[in-house]
Design a protein that fits this description.
Blueprint (H helix, E strand, L loop, with lengths): L2 H17 L2 E2 L4 H4 L1 H4 L48 E3 L13 H9 L6 E3 L10 H13 L1 E5 L2 E5 L13 H9 L6 E11 L5 E12 L15 E11 L7 E7 L6 E6 L4 E4 L31 E14 L27 E13 L9 E7 L5 E7 L5 E12 L4 E11 L5 E6 L7 E3 L11 H6 L4
Antiparallel strand pairs: 1-4, 2-3, 4-5, 6-7, 6-18, 6-19, 7-8, 8-9, 9-10, 10-11, 12-13, 13-14, 14-15, 15-16, 16-17, 17-18
């Protein structure tokens, strides 16, 4: 080896150490499965299961129900169906291998009220063709880079980064940028339900969202890393009216920033840590940042182990939760009313998170269940420092053929030890529900200055 070659190798090695190791995407031959019929365009197994209880994917649900208007109540596309199976505390042992630990704990804790109504499985997940095209390109061009903020995605844009995942990091990074549209507005409420079954309104909010990662005309080389920007305005309860929160979520989560406006202080403040087990302001501190929509924020505190893929009963296509006229119709004393939650059998990626040595978190161990079709983290189990199963984060996905896609709406966390629970993004009492914004919103709308300008004084 020449002196020149040795010097060049040392420079390359130093660069790799400084930037962190990068794990490349799959080969072109493997990526071809996304177009060859073996996998769906987003990476799920296209075929059904041998038992016939999970059908083959045939393109998803892309035809809106006649009469539906954007922002209105999305009707239940399967309203005429009846449950094919009802799982209760009495028969749960027969189906234990297809239930999460949290689901089994809820059945045992509330044997007289909590149940799983299982309906026929429909693989409604879909996305526009341009999202499929970007996902195909991402399969070979995207990589995972190790950084001080943990593993992050590099080189992906406009689609699922790792449609053929090889490890837990890639699965969880896929959930970060799951397809839900490029711009939308939500009007919703959040409640804490106390141990005695009393619902307490925590927030009534108007939420504007944009996903620059999914701007159709964008390009990977021009993407600045902001995959989601969200602005929340609170109108109730009275003690919190006028509060606001602004979030810029970046692929490199160490650069993610969150600002809050508090009416008592009359100023916008940047939160020092909008991550992990920090209590989230919109929930009045009841849930943590990394429990938003089952899972959110950075990965560096845990080792992420891909356990594999499994058939599990999960909430899915639960448009029925949108139909009651009032939020209180959905809220039960200890859990959501089972009549309004549809469960189906789906294949999920199972990923376990174990706290790394030297890191701290209120939940040293967690397990996540990620839908293979939509990449939505639908359910999770979380254990406390004493090894007790403590919390069960959940999301309730609904079919949105007008998008098209499967998108989580109501989400929350059951506290299995205290008996309380929190749920957000209930839209039953709202004037509008989930409005797609085809023209988007200007990015200046998501600036701290704009937040300050609209603050209630």
């Amino acid at each position: 080896m020449t002196m020149k070659t040795t010097k060049y190798s040392a420079i390359v090695l130093a660069a790799l150490v400084a930037c962190g190791a990068a794990h490349a995407g799959v080969s072109a031959a493997e990526a071809a499965k996304l177009k060859g019929g073996e996998l769906t365009p987003l990476g799920a197994e296209k075929a059904g299961n041998q038992a016939g209880t999970i059908p083959a994917w045939n393109g998803g649900l892309t035809t809106p129900t006649p009469g539906f208007q954007n922002g209105g109540r999305r009707p239940d596309p399967f309203a005429s169906e009846k449950p094919t199976l009802q799982i209760t505390a009495k028969n749960m042992d027969q189906y234990a291998d297809k239930l999460t630990d949290g689901t089994k704990a809820m059945l045992k804790k509330y044997p007289d009220s909590f149940r799983i109504d299982v309906y026929p499985t429909h693989r409604t997940a879909a996305a526009p063709q341009w999202v499929y095209d970007n996902t195909f390109q991402n399969a070979t061009r995207a990589s995972v880079q190790e950084t001080a903020a943990g593993p992050i995605t590099k080189g992906a844009y406009g689609g699922i980064p790792f449609p053929i995942p090889k490890n837990g990091d890639e699965v969880m990074l896929n959930t970060q940028v799951r397809w839900r549209g490029s711009a939308w507005n939500q009007q919703s409420t959040g409640y804490q339900v106390t141990t005695d079954g009393r619902p307490v309104l925590v927030h009534q909010v108007n939420v504007d969202n944009v996903a620059p990662y999914y701007y159709r005309d964008g390009k990977a080389e021009n993407f600045d890393g902001a995959y989601w920007m969200v602005r929340v305005s609170t109108s109730a309860p009275a003690i919190r009216a006028g509060e606001a929160i602004l979030g810029h979520l970046l692929i490199d989560e160490s650069k993610t920033a969150t600002w809050v406006y508090l009416t008592g202080q009359r100023r916008v403040r940047k939160l020092p840590n909008s991550c992990c087990d920090t209590p989230h302001p919109t929930s009045a501190g009841i849930v943590t940042f990394d429990e938003i929509e089952t899972f959110a924020t950075r990965l560096e505190r845990y080792d992420w182990k891909l356990v594999g893929k499994k058939e599990m009963y999960i909430p899915y296509n639960s448009n029925r939760i949108l139909l009651p006229a009032k939020d209180t119709d959905v809220l039960g004393p200890n859990h959501l009313q089972p009549d309004h939650v549809r469960w189906e059998l789906h294949r999920v990626w199972v990923v376990e998170a174990a706290l790394k040595p030297g890191q701290r978190h209120t939940s040293p161990k967690s397990r996540y269940y990620v839908d293979e079709d939509s990449w939505w983290p639908v359910l999770a189990d979380r254990w406390d420092a004493n090894g007790q199963l403590w919390r069960m984060p959940f999301s309730i996905p609904v079919a949105m053929p007008d998008l098209p896609g499967v998108v989580g709406t109501a989400w929350g966390t059951y506290d299995l030890l205290s008996g309380t629970y929190f749920v957000a993004e209930l839209m039953n009492s709202a004037r509008e529900q989930y409005r797609l914004l085809p023209d988007g919103l200007p990015e200046k709308h998501f600036s701290p200055d704009a937040l300050a300008g609209d603050g209630v004084r």
